[in-house]
Amino acid sequence: MGLITKATFAVAASAFALSAAPSIAQEWEPDRPINIIVPWGAGGSTDQVTRVTVPIISEALGQSVVVVNQPGASGAVGTQEVLNAPKDGYTWTANAIANNATYHVSGLVEDTNIDDWHIYLSVANVPVVSVPADSEFEDFGQLLEAFQERGEEITVGTAGVTSSGGTAIAGLAQEGDFEYRMVTYDGGGPAAIATASGEAMVTTQLAVEQAELIRGGRLRALAVISDEPLTIEGADPIPPITEWLPDMPIAPDYFGIFIPRGVPDEVVATMDRIWEEKVMNSDALREYAETNGAVFAPSYGEEARERAMPIVIEEACSAEERGTMVNEPSTIGIDCETMSEM
Question: How much is the average pLDDT of 242-269?
Fold first, then answer.
């Protein structure tokens, strides 16, 4: 059984399910601005979708919601800042849920896991393998041969080892049996721009971080980490990675806003209502997804957690298999050995 199938089975069996608390608290009326710490640089995937979602929340709450970019250590610096902040409901974060769930495995944030957060997912994103427009590589097959022959001569621009681009190239290297040299930036947007400018030979950041560069002809998209082609408005369809690596593990990478556990019940109850009534019906968020090669997929609570677990399991177990973990996946409730036998 493949890794994604195992992860899906684990979710279906509710091995890690956490029952959402009923929203019975009174309505929350914040009396001062709320800060959302985006632990990546401006222009990246997390920053983009957060800035689309924030006006919806702000209008519904009748209060300002401020995006604060605080990059560093593959998102760990800003995430730790939120965990250290008072649990009064006025400091949230935004990220890919797989990052928040596996920071302890990577050793970047100690003693944390997915259940430290109330989860509000907005979109699912997919990484794209792209090269500068003037690159020698015309398709992924040529790039794969170069990786296998030249190894660390090939530079890959990402937002860091635990970013979506970092985990994508690590997975590709494992599946394609090659080495590479990573060049890191403060976010996926800067990594994509740097690659388009020739600072790196390849980027594996998310489609939403590359869309404008692909549309504008500055990046050439070679493959999407998916088993289906990806269409970005105004660009040619991008072929799936499975054309070259048919056994490549695939799982949706969900992004959203996360509120630390321990905040007052009325904060969670109010956000649950706003997410269901406003965000899940947002034309602005849907248009953003369709324009930039993302999947419109809002959810919250237990449903969001269940959707997130396949990519969380994949990233935790892949880190163990590659030997890049600092702490065992079992420390966040994931038994990779048991799953490998399922």
Answer: 95
